[in-house]
Design a protein that fits this description.
The chain is an all-alpha fold. The protein has 22 helices and no strands. The N terminus is likely disordered.
């Protein structure tokens, strides 16, 4: 059996194989080392576990905010216990004062500092509920302490007590503002108002607390402009209104204020009444002009109240005391001019700003009608009011604003009353001696303004929508104009037919003739000028003529005057309905 023999490698071949293996191992080791470096780098920058990308993807989309977790019962009960401990500390200070260890003044100061320190700690609370309970404890200590120190112990005078009340309320309001604690600011505000009214009643000091209520009301107004706490403005505004109303009533008391309120100054009371109206109306106007927004319900209601309480109270005080009336009238009149200037940016008839234009122009109307009679003598005010009515009518017809036409009618009615035209016309138709009286010059000016306004209404005929809404004011203006010219006709007839006092029969037939002519003229004008709607005055005029004929002509007439009266009245009954029928 043969055996194969393997011959050994040569030395040169063995050395070449060994070097090749070593080179390959070196390359492999280098690659492994490189992989280790990369793996370690990847591990150091690796993301969260596999579930994380899903969470991140979900978080990238907006989600609804989760509601805050309710406090546990243990935490809630613990906060109540903490408030009890805080109140216990306050009662300990009170015990030291009652025992004589602390003087009352120092005890009051220490108790107030203790209460305010908890308000400051409430501002630094970690949780809103903790802050709320700390602030509540501060409120429960501070306001009763101020009331008791002012009313029972007499440590504080009414003036410093009112200032301290404002400061404490301001601190609690600031904490509630910073921590967004709406219940706390409600509790603090109501506690402040209750404390103020209690001190006002017990100490019989009206002025300092009325001023404090006014400042608190204006501050609450601007505070609620910045947050959604709009309900807070109502109680503070009503408190300010009530405080100024009480002050104005006592200052304008007939014969002077009651004995317990002799310290009330009419000048200070008038200043507070004017400040109430000026601060609130100025705030409303500034906010509307700044934001160009529509007036809201609170502003409408409060404006009406401050006009009645503020300006009405100031006028009553001025008339009772006899001082400051001219200055008051001038200020009110300037306020009216300012309101017309504030209404100018809203002159263009747009739906979103119409309410603001109406608001400012009606304020101007009220201010000028309030201030004008105080500053001007009555005849000059009548002429001034008639000129304003004519100007408002021109502006309303030009801008096609029904509110200005209505205000023009109000100015003209005020002019006819102030000039004596309305009363003089009524006396010319009813009073036996009234027909002989002469119409004042201001009455002629008022009658001219009335006639010119009606003529302008005809020449610049407004759209049917405005004419329909202005039917009642135009009818009133037409009735005043007709009555004025009719009274002038009666006065002229009496002057022509008789010297001095006219005969009763002659006066009666003259009145019947004028009323009959007016009824026929109104029926004819209702046919020719339907825009004035004067036909609505015809039948009331016929009823008035019939009553006058029955109760005056038949009672005082002579055969000749009765003949003329029957002719006038019968002709009117025939012609007026026919003219109206043709008109239809």
């Amino acid at each position: 059996m043969s055996r194969t023999e393997v011959s050994p490698l040569k030395p040169a071949a063995a050395e070449g194989l060994s070097s090749s293996l070593e080179a390959r191992l070196a390359v492999l080791a280098e690659q492994v080392q490189h992989l280790e470096v990369r793996v370690s780098a990847l591990e150091s920058s690796a993301p969260e576990p596999a579930g994380t990308p899903v969470v991140l993807a979900l978080e990238s989309h907006p989600t609804l905010p989760t509601p805050p977790a309710l406090p546990s019962p243990a935490h809630f009960v613990g906060l109540i216990g903490r408030v009890c401990l805080i109140l216990g500390g306050a009662t300990f200070i009170r015990a030291l004062v009652d025992a004589g260890t602390l003087p009352r003044g120092w005890g009051m100061a220490l108790g107030l500092a203790y209460a305010l320190s908890w308000a400051l700690l409430a501002d630094r609370g970690k949780h809103p509920l903790d802050s709320a309970f700390h602030a509540l404890a501060s409120i429960l200590i501070a306001y009763p302490l101020i009331v008791e120190s002012t009313t029972r112990f007499g440590i504080l005078a009414p003036g410093p007590a009112a200032l301290l009340l404002l400061a404490v309320t301001g601190l609690h309001g600031a904490v509630a503002w910073r921590r967004d604690l709406q219940p706390i600011i409600w509790i603090a505000t109501l506690a402040s108002l209750g404390a103020g009214f209690a001190m006002m009643a017990i100490r019989q000091a009206i002025e300092p607390f009325a001023a404090a209520f006014l400042l608190l009301g204006v501050a609450a107004l601007w505070l609620t402009y910045g947050r959604r706490w709009h309900g807070l403005r109502w109680p503070t505004a009503l408190a300010a209104d009530l405080g100024v109303l009480i002050l104005a009533l006592l200052a304008a008391w007939p014969g002077g204020p009651p004995e317990a309120y002799r310290g009330i100054s009419p000048d200070r009371a008038m200043a507070l009444a004017l400040a109430l109206a000026a601060l609130y109306i100025g705030s409303f106007a500034g906010r509307m002009l700044q934001r160009r927004r529509v007036i809201n319900a609170f502003e409408s209601v409060q404006t009406a109240i401050v006009l009645l309480v503020g300006f009405g109270g100031a006028v009553r005080i001025a008339l009772t005391s006899g001082s400051g009336a001219a200055l008051l009238g001038g200020g009110v009149s300037l306020a009216g001019v300012g309101c017309y200037a504030a209404a100018a940016p809203f002159a263009e008839d747009q739906e979103e700003t119409r309410a603001n234009f109406n608001f400012f122009t009606f304020l101007a109307l009220i201010f000028l009608l309030l201030g004008g009679p105080i500053v001007l003598p009555q005849p000059l005010f009548a002429v001034f009011s008639g000129a304003l009515g004519l100007a408002a009518m021109v502006a309303g017809l030009r801008l096609r604003r029904a509110v200005l036409i209505l205000q023009g009618a109000i100015y003209l009615i005020a002019s006819s009353v102030a000039s004596g035209l309305a009363l003089w016309s009524l006396r010319a138709f009813l009073d036996p001696a009234g027909a002989a009286a002469r119409l004042p010059l201001a009455g002629f000016a008022s009658l001219a303004a009335l006639a010119a306004s009606l003529a302008l209404f005809l020449l610049r005929r407004p759209p049917d929508s405005i004419a329909a809404r202005m039917r009642a004011p135009v009818l009133v203006l037409g009735a005043l104009t007709a009555a004025g010219f009719g009274a002038l006709t009666i006065w002229g007839c009496c002057r022509a037919l008789a010297r001095g006092a006219p005969d009763p029969g002659t006066l009666a037939v003259a009145r019947t003739g004028v009323l009959s002519a007016l009824a026929i003229a109104l029926a004819w004008l209702g046919r020719r000028l339907p825009v004035l709607e004067l036909r609505w005055l015809v039948y009331p005029m016929l009823v008035l003529t019939a009553l006058k004929f029955l109760f005056e002509d038949l009672a005082v007439g002579r055969p000749l005057t009765l003949f003329l009266a029957f002719m006038f009245f019968g002709t009117t009954l025939i012609l007026a309905p026919r003219l109206l029928k043709v008109n239809r």
